[in-house]
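Last lecture ended with a question: if I hand you only a sequence, what can you say about the shape of the protein? Today we answer it with a concrete record. The protein is Putative mycofactocin biosynthesis transcriptional regulator MftR. Below, first the input exactly as provided, then the predicted structure, then a couple of comments.
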Amino acid sequence: MPSDPAKPGLRERKKAQTRATISACALRLFDEQGYEATTIEQIIEAAAVSESTFYRYFPTKEDLVLQDEYDPRIIAALRAQPADLPPITALRRAFAAVFGDLSDAARTELRERTALILTVPALRATMLDQLLQTMQALAVPLAERAGRDSDDFAVRTVAGAIVGALTAVLAELADDPQADVAELVERIVEQLESGLSL
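The predicted structure:
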C-alpha cells in the first residue's frame, strides 16, 4: 500500500521530534535559570544530543526562541486560498488554518517564547529585524493576489499593517497567559477589516 504523501515520513518525524526535544529543554532551562544564564552546553546536555545535532537545528542560541515554523505556514496557507478572495479575507482563512488547531503544547510553547522575546533585550532587538523580513515575505503572496509587485508601496503597507497587528498579538499573549492565539488573530483581522477604527 503506498504511503500518504501528505503525512511526514519516519525521518521527518524523527527530525521534528529532535527539534521539539531541544526546544522544550531550552525553554525549561530558560524558565529555571534565565535566558542569559543558560548555556548552549547545558541545553545540549539536557536534550541528550550532540553539539553537531544541536547546531543543525539551531545555529544560534537566539534561534531557540526566535526561529519558528509559523511564517512559512502562513504564507503557504495564504497561497492556498482562492484567488478571488479579498486580501484580508484570505488572510483570515490562512491564519485560521495555521492557528486554529494548535495543540495545547504548541500554544504553551508559543506563549513561553513570546514572553522571552519581549523581556530579553537581545531577543527583542533581533525580533524587530525579523519583523521586517516577515513583512517582505508576506508582501510576496499579497502582491501575487493583487497582480502587483511585492515592492509596491500599497502592498508593503498592507503587509506592514498585518505584521504590526501580529505584534499586538505577541504583547497580549505575554500579558495574558490564558489568551487564545487563534481568537486574538481573528480579532486583529476583524479590526483590519473595519479600517483600524477604535
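Comments.
1. The domain at 1-61 is CATH 1.10.10.60 (Arc Repressor Mutant, subunit A).
2. Confidence is low (pLDDT under 50) at residues 1-6.
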